[in-house]
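Notes, p. 3: input format for complexes.
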Amino acid sequence: ETYHLSDEAPSIQSLVEQAKKLYDDTFENSSDISCAVAPGRVNLIGEHTDYTLGYVFPIGIAFSTACVGTCSIVKENEGECKIISVNSDAPKTISFKSCRDMKPLPNDDKDSWSNYVAGVVYEYIKLLPEKTAINMEISICGDVPLGSGLSSSAALEVAVATFLEVAIKKEFPNFDLGEKKDKALRCQSAENNFCNSPCGIMDQYVSCCASKDNAILIDCRSLDFESVRMADTGDEKPVFVICNSNVKHSIGGGEYPVRVKQCAEATKILQSVCGDRIKTLRDATLEDVEQAHKKRKDEGPALMDDLIYKRAKHVVTENKRTLDAKKALTSGDWKSFGALMNESHESMRSDYEVSCDEIDFLVETAQKFEGVYGSRLTGGGFGGCTVTLVDKSRVKDLCEHLKKEYAAKYDNLCPCFESSPGVGAREIQLS
Ligand code: ADP
Ligand code: MG
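Output follows (431 residues plus adenosine-5'-diphosphate):
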């Protein structure tokens, strides 16, 4: 399927035009310009389950990132990349060499966004034949809010990866770039290795393979995905509303790696109790976790302490909720879907401890509102966004209510918007 700029939504057209304008203002070259776009995402349920290879259930959203520019594969050991972004504080070009022994760039904060791009370039250099490199000049423009849990980072990585794949296909038409999951894995490696973020595969994968009107159930172990259509229950069909708390607690960035480690610790303990049928937390049942928590070594302390127990309990119950949510979505059982969202939030709040006051307030305010089926924190946590399932006819009132209550309590804005499942990364023909 070929996407033409003229067929895209106005918001995408505007992103591409802004990126193109910055490109023209910055770089000389004006022929052979190509363009790729990738969306951010909102996870409906299945939070903090991807890095233990469980299930996640996100949708692609209308907010996206566009990458516009020129790229060539050169038969040299070293190339040069010049990048600029509309969204960085000081839009100036950042240059780096592309070569086989690329490293994360010296990382003063202001320019750190370039590591997301450099990481992706590195993954593609590794794929290309020896003694080839990448020359590129690109401009980036996105409207995914940065650092709000809607995955602007994956949108950036996947837009750049999609852009590079276009250039590689042009130079080597028979080059095997693999499937969408391979692209997602490359982008995940970029973020893991260049951005110091031990993230799972969810964000990059859904940005690659999202499709209109479908939620994407991803099995993070097999890396199979299933596009799951929301049941059509006529006019009664509810919609998803995203609400951005506009807070990002500084503790958040540091806690994510701590959760990753706690899950690894839980896995080790479960292996010692249940044997090697437990490869990751994905393989454990709630009974396994309860058993490890009760088990004591020679009447000493429990093998699994209370904290690790709570972390493991969130993950194993969340995996089950995610599979149940898929059934509820396909059968149009909105009540059950909403109840699962509410349970997921409670589990993230009290067991995984990744919520915060502002988010709890938005979730509880939504949950009490007439026409709402369920609401929860979405994304990594400690701020960011909530996602709420609500009757279509109640969307406007809900958004107004949330904004009013939030302003009264926190003297802050919380932008709200309806988001139906949108399409994943694609090349866009500019003319
Ligand atoms: P999230 O993915 O939830 O938005 P992250 O902290 O993972 O939050 O990623 C945000 C970072 O990604 C930004 O601080 C910036 O470095 C980078 N980024 C994302 N989109 C862009 C963009 N359009 N231009 C420049 N940097 C971007
Ligand atoms: Mg991110």
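The mean pLDDT is 94.
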